[in-house]
Design a protein that fits this description.
By secondary structure, this protein is an all-alpha fold. Helix content is about 80%, strand content about 0%.
């Protein structure tokens, strides 16, 4: 394998693993920006899905004692998403993927810029199960259509008066579940060739190690720091997504 391919492969794996360990989302946003330069989209996206799930499973094990915080909320997000995934996959053949990603990037930039400049983040002080279900459903559609299942749930969770443990107890298992189902769709379409599996085997160690580093940083943050970091991550990720699509 040539070095000019191996270095971007490992760099994308490391960046995606770190952001997944830190925030429970963002693997696709960061890794694809690198991997799309060296491999076709279907291959890059299929590898990202596997890296996201495996690093997500690792982080779930490491924060397993906090997962009880999301027991009552998580089903409200995941169950509607299960309906959204096949709808998103079907819509992928009917919509312009670049236009969709640019629209999402613009929304992320506006959201991140607005809230990052405020002295305090807005909070929703009452439970809104219908809104939770709607966000979960839309996240499922985006996951099936563009592998961006974590964007809307992350925005929504950042506005809740939840601790970082409560937020992660929703975001991390949500993304692992949605992308795990997405992998099944990719496998059904035959995306996991021998070459793709080889790339996964090479990238996996870098992803898992970087994910542990991200989790270590996550544990050192206060609740306020973590919520603000989510907003900045949305802003930076939106900028990267827009630059990648416009390049």
């Amino acid at each position: 394998m040539p070095i000019d391919f191996l270095i971007p492969l490992l760099a994308g794996a490391a960046c995606g693993g770190f952001i997944n360990g830190l925030a429970g989302f963002g693997t696709a946003l960061l890794s694809l920006g690198i991997w799309l330069q060296i491999m076709p989209p279907w291959q890059a996206v299929s590898i990202v899905a596997v890296m996201s799930v495996l690093s997500g499973l690792q982080s779930l094990w490491l924060i397993r004692h906090d997962l009880g915080n999301g027991t009552t909320r998580l089903p409200r997000f995941i169950l509607p998403a299960l309906i959204g995934i096949p709808l998103g996959s079907a819509a992928l053949n009917l919509i312009n993927a670049q236009g969709l990603k640019l629209a999402i990037a613009g929304f992320m930039l506006l959201y991140g810029a607005f809230f990052a400049l405020r002295r305090s983040l807005p909070q929703i002080d009452r439970q809104m199960p219908v809104a939770d279900a709607t966000i979960g459903f839309l996240g499922g559609i985006l996951g099936g259509a563009a592998s961006l299942s974590g964007v809307l749930p992350t925005m929504w969770c950042a506005m809740q008066p939840w601790s970082k443990g409560e937020t992660s107890a929703v975001l991390r298992p949500y993304n692992v579940t949605i992308l795990g189902i997405t992998i099944a769709f990719f496998a059904w379409h035959g995306y996991y060739s021998q070459q793709t599996l080889l790339f996964i085997a090479i990238a996996l160690p870098a992803t898992l190690i970087s994910s542990q580093i991200g989790i270590a940083v996550f544990r050192r943050l206060t609740d306020v720091q973590f919520r603000r970091l989510l907003v900045w991550l949305l802003f930076v990720s939106g900028a990267l997504l827009a630059l990648r699509e416009l390049a």
